[in-house]
Specification:
Helices cover about 60% and strands about 5% of the residues. By secondary structure, it is an alpha+beta fold.
C-alpha cells in the first residue's frame, strides 16, 4: 500500500496549455484526484525532456509515472483509468461490450471530428472545405448519439466525454477561422447542452482555456502555416 502511494505521488505531465490532447490528460487526472507536476512545453522549441520521453512522436501530452513515460492521449487516459482504478471514477464501463462501444466512439471522435476540426483553420482552399464538410458531418453523428443522454455513456461522465470536451474550447476558433456559414450552437443543440453539462464539472471547468485566448493562438498558427488569416 505504501509502495502504491509512493508511485501515485511521482506523476508529471508534459503538455502545453492550448493542447486539447493535453487537456484530456489533465481532466482525467483531475477526475481521479491525482496530484501531479505540470510541466509546460513550448511546442515550437521542444524541450530535451519531451524529446527524451517521447522520441517517436515528439508530441504532448506525455504522462511520466514513476519515471516511465506514456504518450498518445487516449492511451494516457486508459493508463490513468487502469492505474488509479475505482468503480466510482472509472472512465470505461465494466462490461466488455459496453467498453468496446466506448472505445469505438472515442476513436471516432478523435479521428473523424477532432482532427478535421483542427484542419478547418490550418488549411485553405479545397482541403479546408473538405475538412469543414467532414467535421460537420461527423459532428452530426455525435449529435444523434447524444440524443436523450446526459453523457455519451448515458448518465455517467466517461472516456468519450473526456476525449471530446477539450475540443469544445476550440469550436470558436474553428468557426471564426474556418469561416463557417452556420453557428455550431444552433445546429448542434444536443452537443451544446452536453458541453454546458461537462463545464459544470470542476475537472473540466478548471482545465479548459478561454475560447478567445484559443482563437488568438489558432490565428497565430494559421499565419505561420499559411501566411494569412
Amino acid at each position: 500500500m505504501d509502495s502504491l502511494k509512493e508511485d501515485r505521488e511521482d506523476v508529471k505531465l508534459l503538455t502545453a496549455w492550448v493542447s486539447p490532447y493535453g487537456m484530456r490528460a489533465m481532466i482525467g487526472l483531475a477526475e481521479k484526484g491525482i496530484k501531479y507536476e505540470y510541466v509546460e512545453q513550448n511546442l515550437r522549441d521542444k524541450s530535451p525532456l519531451l524529446l527524451q520521453m517521447n522520441p517517436i512522436h515528439k508530441k504532448v501530452p506525455v504522462l511520466i509515472h514513476n519515471g516511465n513515460p506514456i504518450s498518445e492521449s487516449l492511451i494516457v487516459l486508459q493508463y490513468i483509468d487502469n492505474v488509479w482504478n475505482s468503480p466510482h471514477t472509472a472512465f470505461l464501463p465494466s462490461h466488455p461490450y459496453d467498453r468496446a462501444i466506448a472505445l469505438f466512439w472515442a476513436d471516432f471522435a478523435d479521428k473523424k471530428v477532432c482532427f478535421p476540426g483542427l484542419e478547418t483553420f490550418r488549411t485553405k482552399g479545397e482541403v479546408q472545405e473538405a475538412a469543414k464538410c467532414e467535421f460537420l458531418q461527423n459532428l452530426a453523428i455525435l449529435e444523434g448519439e447524444l440524443k436523450g443522454k446526459n453523457y455519451f455513456g448515458g448518465d455517467r461522465f466517461g472516456l468519450v466525454d473526456i476525449a471530446l470536451t477539450p475540443f469544445t474550447s476550440w469550436f470558436h476558433a474553428f468557426e471564426s477561422l474556418g469561416r463557417f456559414k452556420i453557428h455550431l450552437e444552433e445546429k448542434f443543440p444536443n452537443i451544446w447542452a452536453w458541453k454546458k453539462r461537462c463545464l459544470e464539472r470542476d475537472s473540466v471547468k478548471k482545465t479548459l482555456p478561454n475560447p478567445e485566448k484559443v482563437l488568438v493562438t489558432a490565428t497565430e498558427i494559421r499565419k505561420r502555416r499559411l501566411g494569412e488569416i
